[in-house]
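A quick aside before the break. I want you to see a complete sequence-to-structure record at least once, exactly as it would be stored in a machine-readable document. Don't worry about memorizing anything.
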Amino acid sequence: MKRVSLLVGLAICTILGAAARASAYTELCPAVATPLHALDAVAPDGAGTTFSYDLYALSPETVSGTLAVQTDGGWYEAPFGPTALIEHDEKYSIWDTNFTRRNFYSAPLYVRFPTAVNTKYQFISKITTDDSMYAWPTKTDLQCEWAGAPLDLPRAHPTKYDLFALPTHAALLASPPPASPIPLAVMSKELNGLSCPVPFRPSAMEHRVQPEYPAAAADSVRKVNVSVIAASVNKGAVTDDWLFAPSSIGLLNDSTLKAAEASTYVPGISRCRAVPTLYIFYAGFAGYGTN
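That is the input. The structure line, written in tokens, reads:
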């Protein structure tokens, strides 16, 4: 029996690297901040004052800038850098596909809040980079936008759903080095002062198109396969897309690309305006002989 299952995930743009199918890799901000981890969480609600995080990018670079964090007490901002992002390859596993991706991470960074808070979302609001791969203007404060929750791909790892079990992230669990300066977060007048009805809203799918099951591929599929597609969209229409974690069967990859292109999306809102967003479009195919 042939089956197609579909799952669409939404992600902040800069977590994605890909094998290009269309014009090029897409990067809407030079780096992205990973979720904050409380180093001094206090029961019962887990609030803390000191947090660790690191930065992720698609290429080696040195960056500095401002981290924006939404907490249960409002938006805060704190400076970071300059800090270098270096290569750390990681193994990923999505259904039947295992692959290795080149990632670039910073050393652990820290931020301290004046009172205990629970964090919700974070993004880099301003950044300066020396990256040349993506033709970013260097030595300039670039403004980045919040576009939803960051992507967390399952890894091919015994504790593949535990981000902090990965070697590149293990140091985030440790206390800051002695005498290490930790920036103090301050309330953001800009982000807390936005007066529109919906200053921030995550992106969402408007209409999903089911991938077609290619008849020529049915006999070659004996278990669940997956094509993972990243679609860069603006104002609901797909403007660029490429294979993110392809299967070994080209016909299934092409079918998922077509479905991602035909689907429509609602862009996220950041600072009261719609912003381009990257979406992760998953399709699972089951061939004959499966249950």
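Two observations worth writing down. The chain has two domains: 28-192, 200-286. Helices lie at 189-192, 250-262. We'll return to this after the break.
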